[in-house]
Amino acid sequence: MTADSATALVDVDLGLLILRVLVGVPFSLHGMQKLLGWFGGGGLGGTGRWFASLGFGDGRTAAVLAGVSEIIGGLGLAAGLLTPLAAAALIGTMSTAAFVNNAAGGFWSVSKGWELNGYLIVVAWAVATTGPGRWSLDAVLGLGGLSGFVPGLVALVAGLGLGYARWATRTPPE
Question: Using one digit for the tens of pLDDT, what is the confidence trace for 112-128?
Fold first, then answer.
């Protein structure tokens, strides 16, 4: 390995670490808003009422599912632990959000569209496909074989499928 190729690997690993942490940690904080009311969030009660207004029954189950997915998926992505599973959790949450809150607005966020949800889905999918890099718990634990084209595709399909199923099984408000 040449010095240039070693530097390139460090740069890629550093880039993946920055991406994972700066996307994963805010995801987990959003989950804490939903479940615990931290950082100005509604907590389980407020978030449950909001989900109920969107057609998710009493809303509490949806709030728990979304909050737990965001906390575990976000921290898993940030730490690079079981990365495809963490990515699938985040993809599922973001696809549900896109279907429920943003699909009617089209693509662009300025029109309340699903643009941001789509970007976050792509980031999670890309990390599941490329792997979290050498500076991750997956690497430390020898779980590097979890990433690649097939695990990334499984994370994408599972996340989108579960997000769609959650959206499709709600009772849309009148």
Answer: 889 999 999 999 999 99
**Separation of first and last alpha carbons in the chain:** 63
Q: Tell me: the pLDDT tens digits for 147-161?
A: 899 999 999 999 999
Distance of alpha carbon 164 from alpha carbon 148, whole angstroms = 24
Each domain of the chain, given as residue ranges in start order, spans 3-168
